[in-house]
Specification:
Blueprint lengths: L2 H11 L4 H22 L6 E3 L2 H6 L2 H4 L4 E6 L5 H9 L6 E6 L31 E5 L2 H4 L10 E6 L4 H11 L8 E4 L8 H12 L3 E7 L5 E5 L2
Parallel strand pairs: 1-7, 2-3, 2-5, 3-4, 5-6
Antiparallel strand pairs: 6-8, 7-8
The structure holds S-adenosylmethionine.
């Protein structure tokens, strides 16, 4: 880009609200997202409208077998409740991790530090297979013993790069062929997408896209190699 144009853009910036800048960044996010899927040779098989429908794509394989379901970023427990119904096998284990004090740092101008705080309240879910672990990921995960399992589903919904990276690093050795990883906010090139991109480059693991919503924010991957 020529310097005159850069200079013009800085002048334009003086009259742009944070919302406009957020919108421009979101536009760049979606373009980068499309590029990322192409560069990584991901074929986006099924696209659906809602997050629940993305989850449902894993149901035929997981509903009736014992599954270890790990959720990072629980908030009020909406996704955990969904999975508590979806997973029918009594031997399934659902573990959710959250500070319950909200995000540890700013995500974007509209979603700052402490956003999603429940003031420490842990959701109440009427299912004995569900257990929540309260604390910051980097502090609680080193003390967490991953239960033995044959089927693993990871729900990544912590929004931030730093949080997602902490979890992916922690789970690296558990992510075997067949493991599912779901991202809830994949459409931010500086956060979940960046953490997963780095993870792929570092581990050389191969994944396929099982399905996604139309805007590729909710994306379900499965390791294939
Ligand atoms: C978008 S909300 C989760 C939404 C939830 N999965 C649902 O179904 O509605 C993101 C959550 O991630 C949590 N979180 C993000 N980074 C964290 C970290 N490093 N340690 C603990 N919790 C974290 C926040 O407290 C917040 O509740």
């Amino acid at each position: 880009m020529k310097n005159q144009i850069k200079s013009l853009l800085t002048k334009l910036g003086r009259y742009s609200s944070p919302n406009i800048i957020h919108g421009l960044n979101a536009t760049a996010n979606y373009i980068a997202l499309g590029r990322w899927f192409k560069d990584n040779h991901f074929d986006i098989g099924v696209t659906v409208k809602h997050r629940g429908e993305v989850f449902d794509l894993a149901a035929p394989a997981l509903a009736n077998v014992p599954v270890l379901y790990l959720e990072f970023g629980v908030w009020k427990g909406e996704a955990t409740r969904y999975w508590s119904k979806l997973l029918k096998h009594p031997g399934s284990i659902l573990h959710g991790f959250d500070s319950f004090e909200g995000l540890p740092e700013d995500w974007n101008h509209a979603t700052g530090k402490a956003h999603f705080s429940t003031d420490g309240q842990i959701p109440n879910i009427d299912d004995k297979r569900v257990q929540f672990f309260k604390g910051w990921f980097d502090q609680i995960l080193p003390k967490y013993k991953i239960p033995a399992h044959t089927h693993l589903f990871i729900n990544m919904d912590a929004d931030l790069y730093s949080s997602t990276k902490t979890v992916l690093d922690f789970l690296k050795d558990e992510i075997k062929v067949g493991t599912y990883i779901y991202f809830d906010e994949f459409n931010d090139r500086f956060h979940e997408m960046k953490a997963f991109d780095e993870f792929l480059k570092e581990t050389k693991m191969k994944f396929k896209v099982v399905g996604a919503n139309q805007i590729l924010s909710n994306v379900l991957f499965q390791r294939i190699g």
